[in-house]
Amino acid sequence: MNLPVTRQAAAPALALAVLSSFVSSAFAQSADTVLVTANRMPQRALDVIADTTVIHAEEISRSGAGSVADVLQRQRGIEIARNGSAGASTSVYLRGANSNQVVVLLDGVRIGSATSGAAAWNAVPLGTIERIEIVYGPLSTLYGADAIGGVIQIFTRKGEGGPALGASAGLGSNATRQLDASVHGAGSGVRYVFSAGHEESDGFSATRPGAFGYNPDKDGYRRRNANGQLSLALAPGHEVGAQFLHSDLRAQYDSGPGPYDVHNEQDLNTAAVYVSSQFLPNWRSTVQYARSDDKLGSFTSAAASGASQIDTQQDELTWQNTIALGPDTLQVLYAHRKEDVASSSSAALTRARITNAYAAAYSARRGSHLVDVSARHDRSVYGNKNTGAAGYGYNFGNGWRATASVGTSFRAPTFNELYFPGYGLPTNRPEKGRNHEAGLRYDAGPVQFDATVFRNRLTDMIVNANPCPGRTGSCAYNVNQATLEGLSLSAETRMAGISLRGSLDWQDPKDETTGRQLARRARKHASFMADYTVGTVKAGAELLLSGERFDDAANQRRLGGYGLLNLYTSWQVTPDVSLLVRVNNAADKQYELARNYGTSGRTWFAALRYGLR
């Protein structure tokens, strides 16, 4: 599939997602899949050098998952930790990198807390997602601070075809219930989609005996969301658009045996407007203004207001120009980002910072040779940072391709690490990363294979230093070095109605200063999937495996390895109606993702869907 020049020009992901929304596939990227995130423009997977994975709508719909993190956990290179049910605080580790070392985008809008540095995974609604693109390795040259481990971009459904309605209803264990509804369409230069959803569960105890604040009651959650997108083609090659998403989460947690209902209230809001113009046949320019809000408060039934409230607001203006130069592409980018934090518990955290960035990227295609180079300059209160990256790929033919790349990255200190009373140090510097990797890929018809070896060396790691230089007690301090290295393998095939997929990850996420394994990251983990389709019925099984981990940096509290078996079946009753039945943790395995925090035993979930892919 060849993309016309007028559609190849880069734009922020909101506009680009519209251009590539017609692409679908039952599995991870094949040669015809179009990717957006790896180079900030739509490209065939065959032309992308970066190591990537795509989670498509079919896999998301059959997941029966309670959160985006549950879907991500089944992918190669990804591990999660969670303090309870699907509504609890969640960390996502990409190739061993921390949650705050991964950039998360929602339809091109950056989300996350400026105080913790991590995205609110538990607040992202699952029912509205069309696909997820995962790009492994440093992408600071394209996305700026924090893209050390990679970038995860979530795309919601797009408007297409004639006016259509979609709806789903689901029930499951722990009194889980879900409702989603949407309307979408396209015509006369207009694309639109609007959806809303509600999810609620009684949950299970967030903590186990021995945990601080243990209470054996059930800790449930409720998540509500609404989102929409609207775009208008003003003239051939000229488009304006807007999008929004609102999600509010209320999640209970344990805070001792008292009678009070203690819960977090997490609100996630994003909004963006853009103008994309094809000024010349080889030049597209796109301007986008986006805002995201991450609000977190802790409440009790006996309190009229939150015990604490932290609000993060991010405003970002990007101007992206893409110029086609024969078979090559030049991108020039300017980005202005402002972070505002308001805290009810600490006046020191209530402040703002601004980052201005300039970047350029060049992609060349010469026969079987692929070359990408990029550079970026970021300027902020934490100093000036320059990053660069270069990648090379060679197509041998017959589906075989080899790639190699190098890149530098950085993570900006969070507001907590800079200003939190008794912990932060205003002199903390950004963490720095330097990554080298090589890959071998095979993609021929029904068979795909991918092998990647990587080594990401991190310096100036910010850790909890005790004693703290210059004062008593502990503090956040640039003191450690770490190495994230490993080998990632994945393969999949389809034959005679049977689909098979598997991945294996061997890694060594190590703190070089102490010689210890980084907390909550295993040295090996794997996933396997098999399903069989007969007519309109599909049945399948998933197996997730993880080795032992440690819950602390000192490697004193061991978390045992585990294996989880999930079973599912789906029936396409009519072209518009489908039924899903799923059993997660079918063997009722007892395991921990974080020490003394609860995980779900055997659960079931059933959903009836109309008009949803």
Q: What do you see in this structure?
A:
It comes from Massilia consociata. Residues 47-151 form the TonB-dependent receptor plug domain. It contains six helices and 34 strands. The chain has a 22-stranded antiparallel β-barrel. It has a five-stranded mixed β-sheet with strand order 3-8-9-6-7. With 613 residues, it is mostly beta strands. It is globular, with a radius of gyration of 23 Å.
Q: Main attributes?
A:
mainly beta, 6% helix, 613 residues, Maltoporin, Chain A, 22-stranded antiparallel β-barrel
User: What global shape is seen?
Assistant: globular
Q: In the CATH scheme, what's the topology name?
A: Maltoporin, Chain A
Could you tell me the number of beta strands? 34
Mean pLDDT: 90
CATH homologous superfamily title: TonB-dependent receptor, beta-barrel domain
Number of helices: 6
Helix content: under 10%
Radius of gyration: 23 Å
Largest sheet: 22 strands, antiparallel, barrel
Q: How much beta, percentage-wise?
A: over 45%
* Low-pLDDT runs: 1-29
- Give the helix/strand class: mainly beta
How many discrete structural domains? Answer: 1
> How widely separated are the two ends?
22 Å
- CATH C-level category: Mainly Beta
* Chain oligomer state: single chain
CATH architecture: Beta Barrel
